[in-house]
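Cont'd.
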Amino acid sequence: MKTIIANFKMNPSSIEEAKQLLELYKQEGKKNQNVDLIVAPPFLYLSIAKQFNLELAAQNCFYEDQGAFTGEISPLMLKDLGVHYVIIGHSERRQLGETNEMISKKIQAVLRNHLIPILCVGETQQERKEGKTQEVLKIQLEQALLPNKDYLLQAEKIFIAYEPVWAIGTGDFCDPREASETMEFIKNVIVSHFDIRISNLIMIYGGSVDSKNIDNFLKQVEINGVLVGGASIKKEELVKILAIANSY
Ligand code: PGA
C-alpha cells in the first residue's frame, strides 16, 4: 500500500470550493481504499475537512503548546481537532525564513504531542549543481532530528519527504531512480544515528508529481508514497492519481 499526501498549499480561496474538493477526496478515498490518503488543507479548512472523514495533515505548526504567539497554531490545537500528521520544514516555509533550529523544535513539539511529523528535506538547484546534495540533506536531517533522539525512539512513525527544491512546482521532477537512490541515502543517515525500526520510517517523494509520472515513482521500492502539491487541487488529476496509487 502506498501513501498519497495531498498538499493544497494556500488553496482554494473559498470555503465553498474547499468543500467541493474535500467531497471529491471523500468519494475517491472510498473508491480507492488501497491508498493511505492524507489530506493537508490550509489551517482554516481543517475543521471542515474533519466532517468529510479524511485523514488530515496540517501544513505547519508552532513549537509551543499555548501562549502569547499571535498568529500561530499549536500542535495541541491540531491534536484536539483530530489531526494526526503535521508537515514540517516544507521548502516554501524554509524560503520564508524557517531555520533548521525552528524545524527541530517543531519536530519535538509534534512528537511530544504524539502527532506524526512529515519532515521535508531537499537541496536547491545550486546545491545540486555544486554536488552538495548529500551534504545538505545530512545537515538538514541531523539538525532537525538529533536534538530529538529520545522522542524519536518512542515515535510510532515518522515520515521523511525528499523534496528537491528545484522540482517543487516547476514541472521539472526528479528522475525516479535518482530520487530512490537519494532516499536510500536519507534512510542510511537516519539509521546510522537512531535505533529506529525501518518499518516506522515512511519515505515520501515530492516535487511535480502528477498523473503522468506518479507510476514511475511508486514503482520504486524505496518510495513508500508521494506528496502532491499543484496536482492535488486539480480534480481530474487527483482522480487519476488515486486510481494509479490504488493499484499498488
Ligand atoms: P508540487 O508541490 O507537486 O506542486 O511540485 C510539491 C510540494 O508541495 O512539495
